Amino acid sequence: MALIEVERPETEVKEERQEPVRVRGLPFFPHFVLREVVVMCIIAGSLVLLASVYPAGLLEPADPFDTPSPIFPEWYFLYVFGFLKFWTWDIGPVPAKIIGVTVPMVLWYGLLMLVPFIDRNPSTDIRKRKVAVTLGVIALLGVLFFTYYSIVFH
Amino acid sequence: MDLADKIYKWLDDRFKLRELLPPIVKHPAPENVISNPLYCLGGTAFLCFLILVVTGIFLAMYYKPTPEEAYKSVEHIMTEVPFGSLIRSMHHWAANVMIAAVMLHMIRIYFMGAYKKPRELNWVVGIFLLLITTTFGFSGYLLPWDQLAFWATKIGTGIAGSIPVMGEYISLILMGESDIGAETLTRFFALHVLILPATIVALLGLHFMMVRIQGISGRL
Ligand code: HEM
């Protein structure tokens, strides 16, 4: 196996070390590609297995005059439902419902998009990023909590 | 000289493969990236996307996007079309695994701080990819036109519709009329099989190009 030395682009981690960091690297082909192929086989196999054991469902045909219960959205939208249900407080002139839809969709995605511009700390060392890591953990727990909330109280 | 060599030489004469290939093939990937499974998540999402394209094309051969036919065509896929049930179920599972993989990928980027200079824009492109991936899920959910599909979409469009300022337009653009109906179904279908795929391919191209130019951030 041919190990080759790679120079990292200088733009990176300049703050922490003067000389460019050297990382041992392997050629993209065949090493990287081979790993991808192995991963692909595992995932494709798991998908076939999942699909055979738990086939996709199909309920009765849609009927606009008969509301079923319970109605669940896809799991990755549950937190929106959860937050909407959780937030029952008006803030000044803004009704609770508007806050309930705006916070988990507009504000949340807006905030996510701005992450690299809010976090100006150049370090990638997890021990020197206490604020970012704490906020990240809180956000994760929040999404999990509202997902849970939407399942339990719906 | 065997056949593979001959083909290589034929192509090389015409396309200068000897100059084109080495930078691609020998391009180094850092060792810790090859051995750390956390770096597989983006690739996993991409693989799921490829599986979704293939199974989706097969589904589109049998699916009919009208309120009268949609449910029956999905039932037909599930019960009569050879391997239809497997194909639809794989589409279903690949979609869910893709979303999970994208989210975990994003979590890894966040906690490793891989969005920092010079990769800020790739994070922004990533957020758009996340939005597109979930919109794929949202639009696909309606297509079988069963009770769950109909009512979950009703609530979903209702929520999107109550976003201040833009909500009204979003729900009108999505539904095409004041309530979910034939118009909504064809719109969701067009979104799901034409608009979103074209958009995600463009953004994935951008995403991968940036990873290629900037390298993977990685000093573990
Ligand atoms: C359709 C969805 C996506 C696909 C297929 C995808 C694919 C990939 C792949 C294959 C890589 C190479 C490294 C790795 O796999 O970890 C990567 C890197 C990256 N992705 Fe994604 N990605 C997606 C969504 C996202 C999202 C939602 C974000 C964040 C908001 C994101 C941000 C990044 C960043 C910043 C990098 C560079 C990481 C580094 O240099 O370490 N991507 N992406």
Automatic annotation (TrEMBL), chain A:
Signal peptide: none annotated. It is a multi-pass membrane protein. InterPro entries: Cyt_b/b6_C, Cyt_b/b6_C_sf, Cytb/b6-like_sf. It is found in: Membrane. Pfam families: Cytochrom_B_C. SUPFAM superfamilies: a domain/subunit of cytochrome bc1 complex (Ubiquinol-cytochrome c reductase). The chain crosses the membrane at residues 32-54, 98-119, 131-151. This is Cytochrome b subunit of the bc complex. It comes from Candidatus Methanoperedens nitratireducens.
From TrEMBL, chain B:
SUPFAM superfamilies: Transmembrane di-heme cytochromes. Pfam families: Cytochrome_B. Signal peptide: none annotated. GO terms for biological process: respiratory electron transport chain. The keyword RNA-binding does not apply. GO terms for cellular component: membrane. It comes from the Archaea. GO terms for molecular function: electron transfer activity; oxidoreductase activity. The chain crosses the membrane at residues 38-63, 93-111, 123-143, 155-176, 188-210. The keyword Lipoprotein does not apply. Residues 7-220 form the Cytochrome b/b6 N-terminal region profile domain. Keywords: Membrane, Transmembrane, Transmembrane helix. PANTHER family: CYTOCHROME B. This is Cytochrome b subunit of the bc complex.
